[in-house]
Amino acid sequence: MTSSTHWPVADQLRTPRLSLEPLRTEHAQEAFPVLDDVRLHTWTGGEPSSLEELQARYARQSPGRSPDGSQGWLNWMLRRVEDGRLVGTVQATLYRTESGGLEASLAWVTGVEHQGRGYAREGAQAMAAWLSSHQVSALAAYVHPEHAASAGVARALGLTASDTLVDGETRWSTSGR
User: Which listed site, 85, 101, 154, 172, has its alpha carbon 20 to 30 Å from 164?
Assistant: First the structure.
């Protein structure tokens, strides 16, 4: 792939409870306190990013594609409609399949104080519907085998767990691969 590869560009989305805003570098300041919690890394490892690291990551991701153009990067910030508070993120990394179709690897994060309210499911479902309307034919996600909440989101998206483990996470997908 070259940098001339065209990828879908994230649109503003809306659900009954959430506004999904395409990622901008400026979101880092507001996202930092939501994501600055070591408990968010229980299943994925690592540690929270500093504000500067988050700003740099959002600056890299905001253009919507990897620097070499081989992947499309779609990121949305989840904002609660009722009060405008940022509650989490959803993202899709797009890949071209051998047949030229699009597949997306999905991820979601909800701030600890906002978990258990269905925001990840609602945001991920809105993202999946949008991806489907943009010719993305297959979805996948990687979920730690003991992370029941994320497995629930994957199931709500119609994904099925496979026997494939990558970095200790189970591959869930619509294709069953």
Answer: 101
Q: Is 36 left (phi over 0), alpha (psi -120 to 50) or beta?
A: beta
Domains, the chain, with CATH or none: 13-173 (3.40.630.30)
E strands, the chain, are: 13-14, 18-22, 72-80, 86-96, 102-110, 136-143, 160-166, 169-173
Does residue 39 sit in helix, strand or coil?
A: helix
- The whole-number pLDDT of residue 69 equals 94
Whether pTM > 0.85 for this model: the answer is yes
Q: Which two tokens stand for residue 121?
A: 């499911």
At 176, the pLDDT band (50, 70, 90 cuts) reads low
Q: Which residue has the higher pLDDT, 46 or 15?
A: 15
